[in-house]
Amino acid sequence: MKKVATRFAPSPTGPLHIGGVRTALFNWLYAKNQKGEFYLRVEDTDKERSKEEYKNQIIKSLKWIGINYDGEEYIQSKKIQDHIKVANELVKSGHAYKCYCSSEEIEEQKKRAKQKKIPYIYDRKWRDKKESEAPKDIKPVIRFKSKIDGTSILKDLVQGDIEIDNKTIEDFIILRNDGTPTYNLSASVDDHQMNMTHIIRGDDHKINTFKQIQIYQAMKWDLPSFAHIPLIHTIDGKKLSKRDKASTLDDYSKIGIMPDALRNYLLRLGWSYKDKEIFTLDESVKYFNLEGIGKSPSKLDMSRILSMNEHYIKNINEKDLFVQFSDYCKIFKKAISNTKSEKIKNSLTFLKNKAKTLEDIFNNGQYIIQEEVNFNKDDFKLIDNKAKKIISEFKKELMKADKLSREILEPIINNLIKTNDTNFKGVGQPLRIALTGSKFGPGIYDIIISLGRDEVTKRLNNKIFT
Prior knowledge:
By secondary structure, the protein is mainly alpha-helical. 47% of the residues lie in helices and 11% in strands. It is built from 20 helices and 12 strands. The protein has a 3-stranded parallel β-sheet with strand order 1-2-3, with helices on one face. It has a 3-stranded antiparallel β-sheet with strand order 4-5-8. A hairpin with a 3-residue loop joins strand 6 and strand 7 (160-165).
């Protein structure tokens, strides 16, 4: 039995789409579950739109989410001559032919089909004509001679048996009149040369699969198995496209979604194993199978992604969380100084409270990160004379404390409540505004301890509180 081999074959014509990431993930997991190999093929034959930056972004994105491919990237444009050679072999064996229809003729056929409200299918005009009848001034395309009679059945590993009338598949172009191969030819040749055993891709490729199977059969190659995954839709039920907000991995890493959380979400998007929700990387590989993939489209739900991310933030080891947080800040915010980094690290237990993203942790920790306190104008209005008196008295008591802890701070706060005839909010709120600039934020004890005595004293010494 052949060793399982799968591939992910993106075009570097834009950033990696979230649907593509899930396809890559399913291919990778299936290969690893079957102790097989997973390859990356870069389909860069569209020279005008393919860019090196997109290729690099695709590679970086896959690594970010934890998908590592075997061997080097397979670059499709380097294999063009192999594709052309197969096209010529198909002509020789009578499975393809030169078509001399002008672009005007094709346009006319399309126009007539539109008027009749039927799908356009090339009329096969040159299928059985002799080469001697060919016009001299037209460069031909090469078309594959598709089956006309009967039906074909695709034994799909996700969708089950899919039957199609052969006459609905046109004699599709495999080589353009400029000599360049088309997608269906290139993909077939590459998959054969790469010894692919399983082609797992979106179900918008079903018609391509029927075409590619015919190329395989004409060349007498061993057929791979095919599995077509339902597409991802928006929450409104429309097909997700690259133009949609939050459609690329960068959209998620930017707001602080962690790779493990997004990978777990994408794994569960259209796939299930019993009633299990959270999967480690090892568990994902261990339990993944094609039988668990559903047949209906899945909806991309941002609230579910945030919920999954919150779960990971709460449950991840805090050392690992801090490493991911630091990396996030370096890339998307700004690198945090060593002193402040240490304070953030020691405060993660409460800074991560209610945080759904790494950006939330960054925002929660702003009062530590900022050199100067930025006051919310409305909140600052709450600093009246009574509040200033409480701030001044707290500062005096703080000077007497040799260290900061909740046990030391609690009696000081309670005494201020008593002597100022107020409640906990009456003391906590002015102090929180003075130290962070806002009446909202972490608990007052956490704020004071996280800042440290010197920083608290410095902030309370601000002239605006006298």
